[in-house]
Amino acid sequence: MELQVPPSEPKSTQGFPFEFELGRRMVQELGSSTKGSRDPMTLTNYNIPKSVEEVAIETMKVDRVAKLFQTMAIVRVLEEQEVVDIERLEEELNSASPFEIMDQALALFGTDIAILILNPVCTCFSEDVALIEFAHLTGRPFLVFSLDTGRLNPETYCLFAEVEERYNIRIEYMFPDAVEVEALVRAKGLFSFYEDGHQECCRIRKVRPLKRALKGLRAWITGQRKDQSPGTRANVPVVQVDPVFEGMDGGVGSLVKWNPLANVVGTAVWSFLRTMDVPVNALHSQGFVSIGCEPCTRPVMPGQHEREGRWWWEDAKAKECGLHNGNVNGAASNVISEQMVEVADLFMSRSVSNLSRGEMETLVGKNKRSKSSLVVLYAPWCQFSQAMNDSFNAVAEKLCGPDLMVGKFRADREQKEFAQQALKLRTFPTILFFPKNSTQVIKYPSENRDVDALIAFVQAFQ
């Protein structure tokens, strides 16, 4: 898709439909003669007025002519706009470094582009500060904005101040509509998202303020990476026409979205931050990896994926808020189809038994068991399940024997409803212990899924 990329001024011709068209005709008629020192006043013979009425009339004439010449300048800018083929640009920059991508973005859009820092639902704050560092290194001027939801951690606000001081910038903060927030809290309380999901709260506190901010831009820069979230961001491009939000000109295709870190892995981002001594959120040293609003963020434990610290009470595929719907695989939706993502199976150790639906029904049946079992309910596309692959295989190899069976049960797709009703499944992965001589099912309660913790859990019932 081709997009016109104008200089930063003027930003809009909205509100001047008649003058705009008239100005265009004047440009065509006057040509280059208007580029010199011609004074708009010389187009009309202005005499010294003799009455208040004449003063008013002559003033209106001057204003009218001045507005026409202002519009003529706008027309010239619009006619000289550079046309950019975004799809071709994506191909050219797909293997480029984040620095090159950032430099290109700022060069093309100037003051009509801004960096989103602390995308409070869809990224780790470290990526955002890395973006600012890259922008700073280009030597070009840049703008930064953020979404202050009113529920951020104190450490986050401290980092805002550090970033502003280090880079000598002022972050533009966008706030949610107070009336909408008040209505939500009065109707459902302060923590309704724990009961009915985070989408409504995110829509009010983040998505709508973001829409307002983007209406003043022609492009924005985010910290999305392909390796961030399970099954939803594998195809994030480095630059694209935003398929969801609109820019200042309005309509589909009026906004360009840049993702300079799309092809960079999280470890490389942190190496860059350490090398450049960039300030980071103090919460990172406390086990927080992906940082958002305080009620919806917690530290991750060993064996967990970075996104498991967000909305931990929800299904892994629901961990998108709406800010990046256009990059969710398959559709602009918050929930992706499980049929769309095909990946290699997990827990392939010979010590791990692949259990059928019938075998699981037997385990949760009314008869006492003759042998204990440790079973993981998983989905192979889920990066949270992928993150514990090695640790669970190691546990199986250490514990599997005559008195304990270690197994796996794929609990997505057609088995999901059964797993939710009979096996206490809420999120992937879920670990269950079935003790012998009992009909009870014990759910592993901790988010710490390293080898020692899982072994200690099993041994407590042996």
From TrEMBL:
Domain of life of the native organism: Eukaryota
Thioredoxin domain: residues covered: 341-462
Presence of the UniProt keyword Chaperone in the record: no
CDD domains in UniProt: PAPS_reductase
Alphabetized UniProt keyword annotations: Iron, Iron-sulfur, Metal-binding, Oxidoreductase
Family annotation (InterPro entries): PAPS/APS_Rdtase, PAPS_reduct_dom, Rossmann-like_a/b/a_fold, Thioredoxin-indep_APS_Rdtase, Thioredoxin-like_sf, Thioredoxin_domain
Matching SUPFAM superfamilies: Adenine nucleotide alpha hydrolases-like, Thioredoxin-like
Keyword 4Fe-4S recorded: no
PROSITE patterns named among the record's database cross-references: THIOREDOXIN_2
HAMAP family tied to this protein: CysH
NCBIfam families to which the protein is assigned, alphabetical: APS_reduc (TIGR00424), PRK02090.1 (NF002537)
Name this protein carries in UniProt: Thioredoxin domain-containing protein
Organism: Sphagnum jensenii
Lineage of producing organism: Eukaryota, Viridiplantae, Streptophyta, Embryophyta, Bryophyta
